[in-house]
C-alpha cells in the first residue's frame, strides 16, 4: 500500500455542519441602534409649548395614548419633557389646582437626549439608571424622534418572533 493512501472514512460523506446561532446572532440585540427602533414605530413626536396648560397636556396624552410630551419653544427647539409622572407629582402637591398650571411649571427641564446612531443597549441603560422612560432623539439641535422603554421592548419582542420563525423554518425545512 502506498504511503499516501488513506481509506474512505464516514466523515468524508458528512456535509459541513451549520449552526443556528453564532456570535453575530447572539449579540444582535447589542448591535441594535436607536434608529432601528424609530424605523419600526410611528414617527409622530407629540409636542407641547411651555405656556400651554396641564389640562391641554393631559388631553394630548389621553388622545394619543402616550406617556410623555416633548416641550418645544416657538422655534421647535427642545426645552423640556413632560411625563405622566411629572403631572402625578404636581397632582399630589396641589390637589384640585393642578390642571390650570402651565407646562413650564411642571416639566423636566434637564432632558437627556440621544442620537439615532446610539446603541440601543446604551440608551436603555441610561434610562434605567436615570429612572425615566422617555428620551428625545436629536440630530444636532433638531428633534427627530422620541424613544421609550416600551418602544424598545416592542422592538425586541418583534425581533424574537422573527428569530423564532427563522429557527422553525430551519427545523421544518
TrEMBL record:
Extract the SMART domains matched here. Answer: CBS (SM00116)
Tell me the segments the record calls region Disordered: 1-28
* Biased composition range(s): Polar residues: 19-28
Q: Keyword check for Nucleotide-binding, yes or no.
A: no
Q: Is Nucleotidyltransferase included in the keywords of this UniProt record?
A: no
Source superkingdom: Bacteria
Coiled-coil residues are none
- CBS domain residues: 38-99, 107-162
Listed A to Z, the keywords are:
CBS domain
| Entry protein name | CBS domain-containing protein
The source organism is: Vannielia litorea
Amino acid at each position: 500500500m502506498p504511503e499516501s493512501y488513506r481509506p474512505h472514512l464516514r466523515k468524508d460523506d458528512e456535509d459541513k455542519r451549520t449552526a443556528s446561532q453564532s456570535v453575530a446572532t447572539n449579540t444582535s440585540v447589542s448591535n441594535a441602534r436607536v434608529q432601528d427602533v424609530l424605523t419600526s414605530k410611528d414617527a409622530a413626536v407629540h409636542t407641547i409649548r411651555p405656556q400651554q396648560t396641564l389640562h391641554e397636556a393631559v388631553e394630548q396624552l389621553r388622545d394619543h395614548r402616550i406617556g410623555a410630551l416633548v416641550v418645544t419653544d416657538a422655534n421647535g427647539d427642545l426645552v423640556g419633557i413632560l411625563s405622566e409622572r411629572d403631572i402625578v407629582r404636581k397632582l399630589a402637591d396641589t390637589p384640585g389646582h393642578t390642571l390650570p398650571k402651565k407646562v413650564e411649571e411642571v416639566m423636566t427641564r434637564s432632558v437627556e437626549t440621544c442620537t439615532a446612531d446610539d446603541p440601543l443597549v446604551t440608551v436603555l441603560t441610561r434610562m434605567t439608571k436615570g429612572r425615566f422612560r422617555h428620551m428625545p432623539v436629536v440630530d444636532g439641535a433638531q428633534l427627530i424622534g422620541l424613544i421609550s422603554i416600551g418602544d424598545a421592548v416592542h422592538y425586541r419582542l418583534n425581533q424574537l418572533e422573527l428569530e423564532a420563525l427563522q429557527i422553525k423554518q430551519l427545523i421544518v425545512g
